């Protein structure tokens, strides 16, 4: 598919839509009607980064002519999407404790949205340190 995209001067976006345990409430994350667990620390804390790292390495190892068929890689589609309207879903519990444990940060500002933003920042570090930005 990606080779054919490149052959026709078009490119695809690789969109990682969800991760083990589900990243958002709703049917598209694969866990509905159960609440998502990815952000709650009930799934291996490193699995998201490990999977994104594996995707980046897979793309790095592609034939360069195939890789031309990729325009972008999205580390996570709509992270924590719909969480604002599903008040009964405790999606982002104790984000500051999670961040301290995951990233060894001494001082994390309060706010559950920061866990999502920090995860996206960490995933972008994986991308920035790969050969793909070139």
Q: Write down the overall geometry.
A: globular
Tell me the strand percentage band: 5-15%
- What percent of residues adopt helix (DSSP H or I)? 25-40%
Estimated structural class: mainly alpha
List the helices and strands and how they pair.
Blueprint: H1 2-7, E1 12-15, H2 47-60, H3 64-67, E2 70-74, H4 95-103, H5 113-128
Parallel strand pairs: 1-2
Helix pairs in contact: 2-5, 4-5
Written account of the structure:
This protein has five helices and two strands. The chain has helices at 2-7, 47-60, 64-67, 95-103, 113-128; strands at 12-15, 70-74. The chain has 134 residues and is mainly alpha-helical. It is globular and about 45 Å long. It has a two-stranded parallel ribbon with strand order 1-2. Helix 2 packs parallel to helix 5 (113-128) and helix 4 packs parallel to helix 5. The chain starts with a helix and ends in a 6-residue tail after the last helix.
Describe this protein with a few key phrases.
2 strands; globular; 134 residues; two-stranded parallel ribbon; mainly alpha; single chain
Summarize the structure.
With 134 residues, the protein is mainly alpha-helical. 37% of the residues lie in helices and 7% in strands.
């Amino acid at each position: 598919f990606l080779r054919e995209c490149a052959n026709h001067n078009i490119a695809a976006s690789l969109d990682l839509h969800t991760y083990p345990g589900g990243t958002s409430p709703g049917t598209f994350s694969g866990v509905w009607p159960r609440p998502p667990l990815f952000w709650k620390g009930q799934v291996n804390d490193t699995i998201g980064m490990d999977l994104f790292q594996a995707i980046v390495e897979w793309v790095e190892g592609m034939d360069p002519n195939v890789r031309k068929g990729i325009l972008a890689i999205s580390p996570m589609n709509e992270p924590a999407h719909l969480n604002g309207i599903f008040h009964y879903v405790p999606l982002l519990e104790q984000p500051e404790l999670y961040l301290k444990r995951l990233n060894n940060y001494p001082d994390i500002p309060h706010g559950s949205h920061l866990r999502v933003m920090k995860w996206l920042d960490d995933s972008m570090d994986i991308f920035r340190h790969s050969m793909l930005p070139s």
